[in-house]
Amino acid sequence: MLLALIICISSAVISTTAQEKIDNSTNANNVIPQPPINCHSHSMKNAKVVKIWFSKATACENIPVENGNLGNDEFNKSEDCWNLLQQRQALLSLLVQDFQLDVLKAVDVDSAVVLVPGDKWGNLKDLLDKQRDSKNNETWLSYTLITPDLYPMLQGIRQHQSLLSGHEKRPKRQAHVRNMLRAGGIDPDDFPEEGTLNGFEDGEGGFNFDDYHESKFMNDQMKRWVQENKDIARLDVVGESQDVKDPIYRLRLGLHKRRNNLRNTRHVFLEGGNHAREWITPAAVMFLAQNLIDTHRRLHHGKWLNRNGNKNFTESGHLQDEEHDEDVWNPLEHFTFHLAPMTNPDGYDASLRDPELRFWRKNRNPNAVPENVDKCIGVDLNRNFGFRWGALGASPEFCSEAYRGASAASESETKAVQNAIMSMPNRGRAIAISVHCCAGMVLMPYGYRMRLPDNHKELLRSGMRFARAAADASPDGRRFHFTVGASSFTLYPASGMMSDFAYGAAQIPMTFGIELPESGPGLFLNPPEDIQHIGTVFVAGMKSMLKGILEDSGQKGREGTGGDRHKPDSNLGTGY
């Protein structure tokens, strides 16, 4: 298996000209990576999406992992690669700081996709042109302009989605929207002319899987599920958001009446919506919840039923004939699910409502920083958890996209998730998953350091099961691929993450971060028409992973190895 090392975009503070900074940084060898700074004080109008390139990273090629273990030669090579990446991170971080870029995607060791404010593009382009012409060894920069003007693209996509969801057929209006998409560099033909409905009808109260919904509608839908499925569903509030004080709900699905003692079953915790701009993640967790309910209904009531009682579904969300019934597997017979689809309602709703905030990542805590600090607000919730808080990949800078907060678990959203995880019975046999987007990965600990966990073989095996099943379930001839590996190696180093907290502090041995795939134009802009496609892929991967965990534990379950056994301590600092 090949583990790709993907750059962690970082920031540094040096007060000279941008070109001098780049020239000086080419000799840096031991730069500790920090996340990028972005104050979001610029309008999205005239903003550009740019892919910034480095030259080929020969030190990072072909670093194999045999059975989850790096050999000595490969480890030394990974150290060389890590040093090179640190140098490049220092380089790119200077651009991020000076031009107030927002890193949308760390693509691979050679490039990253960034959002450039319109008023910064001219100077950045001049600098990148100069660097490209210099071709300075392995550190020179080039670029590709992906989207010349992001704002009309966002407006066009949103209005196109409104046309679809409202079934509006006005030709002039459709032509206007298509022109807006073209102005943003997007081919309108990449979007279907009508929503793709794989069996789900519009639900009561306006909830469906054809569009993205505000957190209130998701909460209302969970309440309906509980009312309609009192034998298997429970709903409780585990906390509230920092700014608006919206409730954060946990939906529990399991055979509660049959198993009064919940300690006799295995527990699965999933969170979505941690990062506001990743709209597909709460939708995918909700899709999983609907599927679990429908699967149980089919097996216990003789036929598949949706909310309207008139559709037959497969276990992955598709219509199915009666002769395929023997293939259905009911996870609720083996697991109790704790689902928190929306753990950042303030940030998510703001991103959903305002095109200017479409790429907002953090929560909306206005008191997270001192007053009048460049209008920066909010904390990256996935850098705020109380395990190894403040280590690699988390920033102390208020305006950073990866701002870690004032202290470990300083945010009410973080506390809510931590409490939900710690309250699960029998955590030594539990599974914990944080759902993100859009890298197409199954990630195991650790994020805060470049080291594999002790039970990495079990985790890799489970991750590969997810990846294979997800790829096989990809619909319409598309095949969504998932890379499997340790978070720090495969994506980038990051501390204060939910997955590290669940593994290290809560001592849950089977812990993952799942990065859903991107679709449509990318850049977190998964079209609503793909919600059910990606939901189908996610459900198939989850069920395969859970089946495999049962098989590995001999059906009855056994204690996982759990890796390092750290005490749950919010003040563990940055030590390794």
TrEMBL record:
Entry keyword set: Carboxypeptidase, Hydrolase, Metal-binding, Metalloprotease, Protease, Signal, Zinc
Q: Which GO terms describe its cellular component?
A: extracellular space
Swiss-Prot/TrEMBL cofactor(s): Zn(2+)
GO MF annotations, alphabetized: metallocarboxypeptidase activity; zinc ion binding
**What Pfam families does UniProt report for this protein, alphabetically?**
Peptidase_M14
Biased amino acid composition, Basic and acidic residues:
552-569
UniProt xrefs under InterPro entries: Peptidase_M14
Extract the ranges annotated as region (Disordered). Answer: 552-576
Tell me where in this chain the Peptidase M14 domain is found: 211-549
Which SUPFAM superfamilies would you find in this protein's record? Zn-dependent exopeptidases
| Secretion signal span | 1-18
Q: Where is the active site?
A: E515 (proton donor/acceptor)
Q: Which GO terms describe its biological process?
A: proteolysis
Q: Which family does it belong to?
A: Belongs to the peptidase M14 family.
PANTHER family reported for this sequence = PROTEASE FAMILY M14 CARBOXYPEPTIDASE A,B, SLL0236 PROTEIN
* The protein, known as: Peptidase M14 domain-containing protein
